[in-house]
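Researcher: Re-running this chain for the archive, since the previous output was lost when a drive failed. Same request as before.
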Amino acid sequence: MFARTAALAALLVGLVQGAVELTIKEHPRLSKGHAAVLNVATSYNAFGGEAFVVKDVRGRDTAKTHHRTAHTELPVTANPVFSKWGWRSSVDIELLGLRANTEYHYHVSLGDGTTQSITFETGDTPALMPDMVVETVDTTKMADGWTWTSVFPAPNQNQTDQHKYFTASVMLDEDGEVAWVMDCDTLFSNTPYWALNQNWCGITGTQSVLNNGNLLLLWNIYGAMVHIEDGFAGLVEVDWSGNIKMMWVSTRDIPLWSVPLLPKPAVYVDTIVLNHQVDQLPNGNLIGIGFDTLELQCDGWEKQTKVYGNEMVEFDYHTGYIYNRWSMFDALDVCSTADSTEIAYNGEWTHLNSFDLSNVESRNEMIVSAFYLGWVIAVRWEDDEEGEAGSLKWVVGQGWEDPASMVEYTATLPRFELSHNKDAGLDADQDRYDPGQHNINVVPGSNGSKLLAFDNSAYDARGMGVPSRLVIYELEDRPSGADAPGAASVAWSYVDGGKSPFLGGAQYLENDSVLGCFGALTNPDENWDQRACWDPSNCNQAHIVEVSKQGEVVFSVRVGGRDADGTCGDETNSLSWNAYRAFRLPAPSFASAESRGALRGAQA
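Model: Regenerated structure tokens:
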């Protein structure tokens, strides 16, 4: 265990070798299972002290499966400081990216040419963290880097104790092992924002790497990312050490009771519940998905309804000032597309869950994914000769039967007709549009004409009660208008075999494989219809998988799901878990020979 006795605040595995003592202490911000502080110090001396230099710190687990270096910038000089105990030179070195319950051996190289060493064992991962089971790791075929995901209870857990409600941002190292965890308790304890932990704080949704290499996480209280009117949500910038650098809160239309809970200091952003994806632009501004509202009554609706659509907002990093808004209300007609089941459930219309800006400069296309519509949509980034910013350029998808007018309305839009791709070698049943999708992104090197997505499928009411898949669409010709549709085909797909009716992620990797996140696989198989996948009898599991273009699985990790006895845990320890996407990003400097700057600009 990390702490040798309960009475010790830090693990003291001290070795005095020569004039320098090495001691391991608990990290002040991060889990004791995945981080530590190495203190390098001289003994106390009543007659004066000497400076020394730590040139290098390198370690590995004693089983010799992986290496780590110091997170602290080296070399570093420890200068003598006088206290009531005498003179002493001391410096703290951060050790990050460690695996829980693992013995490590570290070597410290000093400026005088000597080397000291220390062996210690890490503690536990956070107590409520679900097991993440590594099934397959083939590092000879995988894309390099760490895998960034998140874990949170499936909706059917129905947890009633907020102190047992565990959600976290999780990094898996090159072997798929947990190496970095950030949950609300770790993030906000002992900070000005500690009160958020008393209000059902959760970390789900967007995760990205900022231009400066720090990490951007989305947090919310009372499940506001999906329960729009129940609380509020925000963003936090943290460094790898877990230190909070910046805080944002989306404040429009938050419940009056929650106003006293607004964290301070923070930057307030005038949109409703930032959600799903927020990235940083090269100019430093942030851009993300918020909600937008409109009161209206469509034919067949019993009464006027507050409809929740979505808007894209670009806002200032420092002040929250919004420079641009793109609203889905300006792109599409609500009454011709709003699914009556979703409107009745929570008033949501589009449910945007991702966007891609790769085609902005070349084609003036901002591409978004609308889960409830089952459409991939391109709107104009800025005004052009054919329309204003935010107006529709095209849709990838078909018209569904709810509402009845959707098929006819779809025929009036710039769209794509789907054909069979003879070169793809796929079965005919793969030639279909998604009834709902997540994490749309443009495939690099495709001239902006291939789109990768996680296709949830598992939607019987739309004739798609079939297993979920990863899919690449090829946009062979853009439409020139409603009367001249474009041509599209399915260029690649991978079917995992199960149904994940909601959540999901897809990332095209540098080795031409695809990283997928089947974020809510159901057991037994269930569809999205009437939220059957959320039934208390169901057991959810997340599956993170890297698959080659030939369909070979080279990386596979699962979280949650039924145990060997077929049970899904109990009220105190449910095994029904979900994950929000997964992204491969360059390994951090303390786990890679690459420079610290390699992380900058990576999306997650």
